[in-house]
Automatic annotation (TrEMBL):
<feature type="domain" description="CREG-like beta-barrel">
    <location>
        <begin position="12"/>
        <end position="156"/>
    </location>
</feature>
<dbReference type="InterPro" id="IPR012349">
    <property type="entry name" value="Split_barrel_FMN-bd"/>
</dbReference>
<protein>
    <submittedName>
        <fullName>HugZ family protein</fullName>
    </submittedName>
</protein>
<dbReference type="GO" id="GO:0005737">
    <property type="term" value="C:cytoplasm"/>
</dbReference>
<dbReference type="Pfam" id="PF13883">
    <property type="entry name" value="CREG_beta-barrel"/>
</dbReference>
<dbReference type="InterPro" id="IPR037119">
    <property type="entry name" value="Haem_oxidase_HugZ-like_sf"/>
</dbReference>
<dbReference type="InterPro" id="IPR055343">
    <property type="entry name" value="CREG_beta-barrel"/>
</dbReference>
Length: 249
């Protein structure tokens, strides 16, 4: 009996880029955990942001079932990727298997994660500081990308993490970087929205930067742009964004 051909394609740079965009452009996701009482998978919906290294971050109540499950067993799967019109299975989606790490208020990264989460989810300000809410960083271990019919790939967790020595420096200057860029080029966000063919949804603003790219938000829409190469510092990020906004197509 002949061996069946593998359904997986060889993972290339285009697949890695698509996977990163699917993960980093998600405002919400389905999360699956293991219920401690039964061991059965338990699925729920969570809001998602990313830390400076691209690792997804969720904010959850300690009273929720998925939070209690993660406290017992840190293994979780995160499903990202939005369907559109027609067959939902024709659209790309990414399942990322993660290990959850709680981020308490005493964690040195807490303030940074809080700021990045609020930049993407400003309405969370109503409850983000409630004592029963906490963050988890979901470190990718491996991932399965379905880019549409016949386009399946397996990825390593490191394919989804920003491996840059500049992460901490960029994180420390992220807010200042965006502020200075907009002050120098007041129309930069409008130009970016036009150049990147963003959906018509009112005013767009840059809500996050990192070594690998930047995020823009307008209402319920989020747009992620990945640089061709990693930025080495904040000035490099500004230069990359300016070229995208103002270069001749």
């Amino acid at each position: 009996m002949k061996d069946q051909p593998s359904p997986l394609r060889e993972t290339d740079d285009d697949a890695r880029k698509l996977a990163r965009v699917l993960l980093r452009s998600a405002r919400h996701a389905a999360i699956a955990v293991l219920a401690p009482e039964t061991g059965f998978p338990f699925a729920s919906r969570v809001l998602v942001a990313t830390d400076i290294d691209g690792i997804p971050v969720i904010l959850v109540s300690q009273l929720s079932a998925h939070t209690k499950a993660l406290a017992r067993d840190p293994r979780a799967s995160l499903l990202t990727g939005e369907p559109g019109k027609g067959d939902p299975l024709a659209y790309p989606r990414l399942t990322t298997q993660c290990l959850a790490e709680p981020i308490e208020h005493s964690n040195p990264f807490y303030a940074r994660i809080r700021a990045r989460f609020l930049a993407r989810h400003p309405k969370a300000k109503l409850y983000i500081d409630f004592p029963d809410f906490l963050f988890f960083r979901l470190k990718p271990e491996q991932a399965s990308l379905n880019g549409g019919f016949g386009r399946a790939y397996q990825l390593d967790g490191n394919d989804l993490v920003i491996q840059s020595a500049a992460n901490e420096e960029i994180a420390a200057r992220a807010t200042e970087t965006v502020r200075d860029l907009v002050e120098r080029h007041p129309d930069v966000e409008e130009s970016l929205a036009t150049r990147l063919k963003a959906p018509e949804s009112g005013t767009w603003r840059i809500c996050g930067v990192d070594s690998s790219g930047f995020d823009m938000i307008s209402g319920d829409f989020l747009l992620r742009y990945e640089f061709e190469t990693l930025a080495v510092d904040a000035d490099h990020i500004c230069s990359n964004i300016s070229k995208i906004a103002y270069s001749i197509p």
